[in-house]
Structure prediction request, 267 residues.
Amino acid sequence: MPELPEVETIVRGLNKTCLRKKIKKVTVSCPAIVQPQNGLAVLTGDSFINIARHGKYIKITAQKGTRLIVHLRMTGQLFLAKNYKPDKHVHIIIEFAGLPEKMYYRDIRKFGRWVIVPPKKEFADYINTGKDALSITQKEFDILAKKYGNKALKAFLLDQTIIAGVGNIYADETAFILGVDPHMPVKKINSQKLLSAIISVLKLGIKNKGTSVSDYITSTGARGNFQNLLNVYQQKICRKCDTAIKRVSLAGRTTHICPRCQKLKTL
Prediction:
């Protein structure tokens, strides 16, 4: 599933290319992905004026007031391309006037969703998450770290109702750069060091245009680069010390730990 750095990379790319371009045609071949199912028809003749992000969600605002939330879920890909031949997994195509590229939404498992936000509702009504991991203040984070102090670090990071945007990849990498076992209770970790580590890992992921270990591609259809810098996630040996990586199940997810670099210690 694309996490915060992957979604941020896509949002930045789309903002550079398709803002204020008139939408001349919208084709939906899998209406079940869209809520309501005919909701995207309203975009014809309109244009996007803002594309933003909260956690793993994309928030789109059109000039005439239509607001749209896109959640890529497990295998969703959102990209711009010209001379691209869509396969059976492309479910939405948006064509722009004066732009050779079309916007494609491709999703092998069809778990992603495009939701039209009704006029009397807000984005927040459809995004059931906590504060964005790159927007939260230290004070806000301290309160959460204290409230959920008994949670294991990995469980705390994955819980989108606490903070939004960190998934399995960046949770494992955050625990690694902290040098702690992800089973460690949050209350035993200095909250300033923890937030600093989260931000550092996420920003490094954004700098390298995300992690392409499965289906993720950027808004141009390219692969990210952060997979080449991973210390423990899906690694056989630790990038730092060459120790064999231990794989365990934690918070319902496969978790990668270096038994030498990461300890159950108060930080």
Remarks:
- The chain has a mean pLDDT of 97.
- The longest strand covers residues 48-54.
- The chain has two domains: 4-125, 131-257.
